[in-house]
């Protein structure tokens, strides 16, 4: 049987993982359609080739060739640094007071509303994980960009 300490440690480990995955999913839920919407206009404006995949879809992160390969490598290294920074906290090897997901970065000084913000972050993160999964499934089966499948979300009201 696990002791109370081991149970708390396991829950903290899972909460930390959920928060990290939630944050990534929230960035992906916003970034995926934005990349499909802005890549063409920005590449034309700057005179660069478009980086979208066939049919105007966002490129896969598994395609490490080209400019996105360097970005993916940089993102992986940055993630590894953050992961190493929080690993000791979650394992209980540092002083107490650590809150899962707290990177000690609060430029808007929202710490006073921390409890409400924690709950909102978990709820929005769970929804974002479902949304990104839905976008991936949609693009896989239909083969068209997310922004073309749901134009009502990506065009001003009255223009679609």
UniProtKB/TrEMBL annotation:
GO cellular component terms listed in the entry, alphabetical order: chloroplast; membrane
Highest taxon of source: Eukaryota
GO molecular function, one term: chlorophyll binding
Residues given in the record as chlorophyll b binding sites: 23
Subcellular location, record wording: Plastid, Chloroplast
One annotated GO biological process: photosynthesis, light harvesting
This protein's name: Protein fucoxanthin chlorophyll a c protein
Organism in which the protein naturally occurs: Chrysochromulina tobinii
């Amino acid at each position: 049987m696990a002791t109370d300490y081991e149970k708390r440690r396991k829950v903290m480990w899972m909460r930390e993982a959920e928060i990290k995955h939630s944050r990534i999913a929230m960035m992906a839920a916003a970034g995926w359609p934005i990349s499909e919407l802005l890549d063409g206009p920005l590449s034309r404006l700057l005179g660069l080739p478009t980086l979208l995949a066939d049919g105007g879809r966002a490129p896969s992160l598994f395609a490490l060739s080209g400019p996105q390969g360097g970005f993916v490598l940089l993102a992986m290294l940055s993630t590894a640094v953050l992961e190493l920074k929080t690993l000791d906290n979650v394992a209980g090897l540092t002083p107490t007071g650590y809150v899962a997901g707290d990177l000690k970065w609060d430029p808007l000084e929202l710490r006073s509303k921390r409890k409400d913000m924690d709950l909102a972050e978990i709820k929005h993160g769970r929804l974002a994980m479902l949304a990104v999964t839905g976008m991936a499934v949609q693009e896989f089966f239909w083969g068209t960009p997310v922004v073309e499948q749901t134009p009502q979300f990506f065009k001003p009201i009255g223009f679609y």
